[in-house]
Design brief:
mainly alpha, MetI-like fold, 11 helices
């Protein structure tokens, strides 16, 4: 009974967080373009009921820009995380089920890949692809798969020597059939949790690279661009230009991280049977 109650609480918390994240995304996509237009008569207004996050140096509503930026970060983070997770799944399964030299080669490549500082690698890929949204997406997708690939490899190694897998092989089932029917169903729960927990890292790297000038184009209301533009006006007393967008980004990342840690026990075999 105690485990069932704990499971229900986890489901409720995860549902509330998921609804909040989805609401932020759709709120950003549904904001009219008129809310982002410049109005020089409204420059540098401090937070108020009409403008909860104040206005910037062009008189644009910072609340609308922040929600729009969070929605953009969610889009970039989701696409990059899914692509990177699929790369990790393919490489992890290949390393575990392949021959010994394949496993050693993939592990060596992962070690070399992880030895390069993450931000440096992201910047190099972004520059090589002429920066912009495409370069940012590809850069994040190509640099976030290593840890999940090792997790997938470890899970597959644990499952491949189980009796039901060995029995399927003795009955002449192909490696593809064994992987699809027996191995993937056991690996996918950990894979999905890893995907969710990769999400906030992708969002933070998107905002960080954009802040440094290697990410989204300046005309996009991305959080990194908002923070980069606002840094020039902190000394003038416009603290709200940095505080609220930065706080909103941190809260979004914490929400996604909490969602991932909350749903993780639900994917564990013992918990799933309760």
């Amino acid at each position: 009974m105690k485990n069932i109650n704990r499971r229900m609480i986890s489901i409720i918390i995860a549902s509330v967080i998921l609804v909040t994240i989805v609401s932020i995304y759709f709120a950003g996509t549904l904001f009219p373009e008129s809310a982002l237009r410049a109005d020089f008569s409204q420059k540098f207004l401090s937070p108020s009921f009409e403008h909860p996050f104040g206005t910037d140096y062009l008189g644009r509503d910072m609340f609308a820009r922040t929600i729009k930026g969070l929605s953009l970060s969610l889009t970039v983070g989701a696409i990059a995380s899914v692509v990177s997770s699929l790369i990790a799944l393919i490489i992890g399964v290949t390393a575990a089920l392949g021959k010994g030299w394949i496993d050693h080669a993939i592990n060596w490549f992962i070690d070399v890949f992880m030895s390069v500082p993450h931000t440096v690698l992201l910047i190099l890929i972004s520059i090589a692809l002429n920066q912009g949204a495409t370069g940012l997406l590809i850069g994040i997708a190509l640099t976030h798969w290593t840890s999940l690939a090792r997790l997938v490899r470890a899970e597959v190694l644990q499952v491949r020597d189980q009796q039901f897998v060995l029995a399927a092989r003795r009955f002449g089932k192909s490696p593809f059939w064994v992987a699809r029917k027996h191995i993937l169903p056991h690996v996918l729960p950990q894979f999905f949790v890893g995907l969710i927990l990769m999400f906030p890292h992708a969002i933070m790297h998107e905002s960080g690279l954009t802040f440094l000038g290697f990410g989204m184009p300046p005309e996009q209301p991305a959080i990194g661009i908002i923070l980069s533009e606002s840094m020039r006006y902190i000394s003038a007393g416009a603290w709200w230009l940095v505080f609220f967008p930065g706080l909103a980004l941190v809260v979004l990342v914490i929400l996604i991280e909490t969602f991932g840690t909350t749903v993780r026990p639900l994917f564990e075999p013992r918990q799933a049977q309760l």
